[in-house]
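Notes continue from the previous slide.

Worked example: a multi-chain complex. Inputs as given:
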Amino acid sequence: MAEVMQVLLNCLVLSANYILLAVGLTLIFGILRTLNFAHGAIYITGAFVVYALFAIHEINYFLSVLIAIAVVAAVGLILEGALLYPLVNRVKLASLGAILGVSLLIEGILSFIFTGEDVTIGSFFSGTVSIFGAILSVERIMIVLICGVTMLALYIWIQRTKQGKAIRAVAENPRVATMQGINTRKMRLLVMAIACGLAAIAGSVITPLFYINPFMGGYAVFKALLIVAVGGMGSIEGSILAGLLIGFVECIGITYIGPIAEIVSFIIVIAVFIFRPRGLLGVHYEFH
Amino acid sequence: MSLWEVAGKKPLQRVPKMRKSFGQKRLFFCLGLLFVLIILPLVFSNPAHVGIFILCGVAGVLAMGWLLILRIGGLSLGQAAFLGIGAYTSALLSKNLGLSPWLGLLLGGVAAGLVAFGIGLIFLRITGLSFAIVTFAFAEIVRLVFSTVDFFGGHGGILDIPNLTPIRLFGMGTLRFHSHIPNYYVLLMIVLVSGLFMWRMDHSALGRTFRSLPQNEDLANSLGINPLYYKLVSFVTACFFSGIAGAFTANYYNVIYPGSYTVMQSIVVQIQGTLGGAASVAFGGILGGSVMVVIEALLLKVDPRFIYIFYGLVIIIITFFLPDGLLSLPREMGKAWRKLAHWKRKSQVI
């Protein structure tokens, strides 16, 4: 029982990380109608900003997380303004190539600044609590809580506020939304900033747990992409569901079977594409 | 015709016609290119340089395959997996069964082609970006199997793969494949055969059928074209030649390990194909692959960390300023030159 609890907590940490990335991707897909391959690089930028502020300049952890969110949101705004918007009338694959380039560029610059080696800021919150006889680290519980609260806030913002309604309208049909007086340009910028902020949160909460290096973002974004595809492009609930599914399958498989269990998540993706191409909870989007 | 128009659903402005005669100018150009390729390792006989030329050839075959798959509207992110399948097949056959590496070269391609046929039957029904995602997922499955199953050697890969066996030339001694230069000529043969094959495929009725699929698959279907069949032809051909190139690398480097078949490798193939341009499958692939590999080798001497920045800058610049790839550079430059001349004339009148 105790071991099961610990494994489940680890699964939740992994899923929370995936969900924060995948929800950002799916928001961007819904409004900007493009896949943000640079999300992984942006996520790792957040992690490195926290590392630079907390470990090198010794600023308070929570303050440095806030600064990281601001910096990364600014990167997202620059990306939208300089790259995605000018390419909006070109064929979608063109903007994909450019975003892929930005992702590689950011990784290269980060490896230049931070020497490209694995770094960590070390555990800063080292208590444990015991629940039902299982000894769980407070840090991991905190991470799950932070992610949960962020997702809840995002959900309330999208579903209950006027701005959220405007965003849902733009996702549904940009042209009609513009006719209703919604500033589509502003919504694009807003969504980009928020999605990048989510990626920054995901990046900064893992810095105390894992070693980070500039090149792990590329793999993370592909995992998030698979989750978005399983959950359904543009559906936030779908991404959360798929994130939990893939996070749990992967974590339980790796704990009890070994590294080959990672295959299962890829097989799930291929199966979803064959039997339910629009994803678990998705609406059908034509991508072209 | 832009690369993105080929892949996207935007209609083509100008459908390229099939050339009836090859044209003397082009024939001389190709013969000159062939001559340069043959004497290249004799001029730059430094083994390091020949090693780079060999890398160019492998990258060229992969990029050609990627462009051929782009013709049918598929953006493949899994080309490195087929390189790996070819390499592992050849290595296992020649090491465990003692088969001749020359046969392994062919069987590596056949294995990659068979796998491509199997997954193509399922994957090629999926269109657009989803195709990129499933090919990526497949490539990751292949890499994970290679790196975790003991039969494939695990993370360490396979060591001590035999070289290509010596050929006995009639009355002129034997040709051994321990040094770079003989291997270069083997690879040159592979590149020429695959390039010629894909060039011929692209510039025939088959190639025009390929081009019709991304534009309007339903319309093509209504005209009696079976989309899945033509997609399979393109996909299997591309993967077959990637497999042969992979088998060659196994025998040339004598060692393979799963770390060289990652997503990054597939993305590099995509960048190389994009850089070359889709105007011509064979020339675009070989041009993009060679240029990228040479610049990469130069950067590696300065600082390996420049490489990522270089990749990023290349693909951004290509997307914004040269969407048809390097092959369209002369045309674009001519356009710019005419514009400049026009502007000069105008300013003189005033």
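Summary box: Chain B touches chain A through 46 residues (CB under 8 Å). Chain B is about 70% helix and 0% strand.
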